[in-house]
Amino acid sequence: MIHIIRNSIPNLFTLANLFFGFLSIMYSASGDYKNAAILILIGMMLDSMDGRIARMLRVESELGKELDSLADIVTFGVAPAMMAYYAYFSAFGTIGMAVAGLFPLFGAYRLARFNINAVKSSLQYFTGVPITAAGGLLTLLTLFHGKMLGYIFVIAFFLLCYLMVSTIKIPSLKDVPLPKYGIIITLFLGYAIYIVFKKEHHRFPYFIYVAIPLYIAFISYQLIKIKKNSQKKN
Asked: What is the pLDDT of residues 105-150, one digit of tens each?
């Protein structure tokens, strides 16, 4: 029983990531881009945790890897594309739908390429920008809806699509005891503080106040663990 629970913990984080992506799509459909963005960025937190937790508990599995890819295409492919559509592309009707749909298509191709080359690839870098980073950046750009010129957003949109399937080498940072895509998450935390100080927290998802402390606790644990390991070596 304990073994089953232990094996399920990383997958629960992955499924939570997928669920937040689904909720983000629902918020985008209602025009609430702030909450939609927050949900995607919480998904980024969970995505940076599930793999590390699996390695920490020594319960890595093929099921977990496949589940992670499925969650990523929803939370960092479809959900950001939905935000982009409702915020910028909906005015162009069917053409806008087709353009917004390119983002999850490029993201799915990037994930499939990564999955078949994961064993052969160097652990030091990714080939092309990961869909998590691309989706997070697109989400942050969409937060400036109404303040950013449309053509700048469109250029950034197509650039992110290209970068996902490009052969550019991106450092993986897998051995760094900090969350992947930390810059994006730091910007998110800054945005969260900004919302609270503007007294708009009544529109702020309440589960963020659970997610942030848990995430900080996890990173603190990782740092303490690294410190203890270094002390043992010395």
From this structure: 999 999 998 888 755 555 567 788 899 989 988 998 887 777 767 8
Structural tokens at position 142: 């969409």
pTM higher than 0.85, yes or no? no
User: How many domains are contained in the chain?
Assistant: 1
Taking CB atoms within 8 Å and a gap of at least 24, the contacts of 187-195 are 187/140, 188/38, 188/41, 188/44, 188/140, 191/143, 192/38, 195/34
Tokens linked to 144: 């400036």
Q: Contact, 67 vs 15, CB < 8 A?
A: yes
Q: What's the CATH number where 228 sits?
A: 1.20.120.1760
Q: What are the Cα distances from residue 233, in Å, to 221, 226, 229, 230?
A: 19, 11, 6, 5
Q: What is the DSSP string of 19-85?
A: HHHHHHHHHHHTT-HHHHHHHHHHHHHHHHHHHHHHHHHT---HHHHHHHHHHHHIIIIIHHHHHHI
